[in-house]
Amino acid sequence: MTIVKDSEARGTQHCETTALGVLLRHEGLDLSEPMLFGLGSGLSFVYWDGKGMAFPFLGGRVKPFELTRNLAARLGLTLTTKETTSPRKAWENAAAPIDAGRPVGLQLDSYHLDYFRSKVHFGGHVVAMYGYDEHDVHLVDTDQQGGAVRTSRAALAKARAERGPMTARHRSFTITLPAHPLPWQEQIIPAIRHCADAFLAAPIANLGHRGIEKAGEQVPEWLPRADDPQQDLPQAALLMEKGGTGGALFRALYRDFLDECTRLIDDDDLRTGHRLYAEAATLWTDVSTLIAKAGESSDTGYLDQAGAILHDLSRIEKEAMQALRRL
């Protein structure tokens, strides 16, 4: 068995920040999960109802791996990423850092992992790998999935080879800190501004605050849109709250990031952004509860209420990001 020494298997709430935490702590940089999420400008919104999709998807963060790239660039980290179409080479790319005494991040489809409780295809899942033997690999996943877990090497190979939305070609990555790391505190305001600019200037109407407005228009029509409302709507609500989002479709994570920032930076606009995102987090949880109730009861009134709250959320988040952009 090969295990990375001094690799702290601390699971948290969101998969990508969980993996980043493992890799960065091994390098000597220990930041909270909300701070990693915020420094990576991770918050976003997308209303996705693509052709051939069984049911619409509400996403609350940037694309998979974009958070990692943002964080590495902002903190001056060396991000080494490898991709391949060869399963043999993919295993070598994952095992080599372990053999050298370093954990490695992997992007894969969670559907195939032995320990995963919810068998739904998601190709943007990220884990940290810190050991292996002839049969199994040792991973760190979110607290919800068990934190320090194992899966078979065969299952891992299937997860990494899967193709479809948000998948990567056997992507693996490592992170190295520079000899003289940039002070991360100085990158807080640039990270917030970057996130706010992207949110307010989204190029299409299903992204950012305009996307939330669109969701407010579309969600009241979800009952006839669903093939199986009693399954589809509660599943959508569950993903918003429990699908590795940290609650409230990532708004709770961003609220906590802004709260941590207010303890470091004295700024009225920052406090306004934090107050508004605290309000938004509560309302997003209300939306998910109403969507679940609509599926369970087939009562469109719950979806009408959810739609009305989403219109409010579009305004609240726009106001929050306008304040944060002024930092």
Automatic annotation (TrEMBL):
Residues 155-324 form the DUF4872 domain. It comes from the Bacteria. Pfam families: BtrH_N (PF14399), DUF4872 (PF16169). Residues 14-142 form the Butirosin biosynthesis protein H N-terminal domain. This is Lantibiotic ABC transporter. It comes from Sphaerisporangium krabiense. The lineage of its organism: Bacteria, Bacillati, Actinomycetota, Actinomycetes, Streptosporangiales.
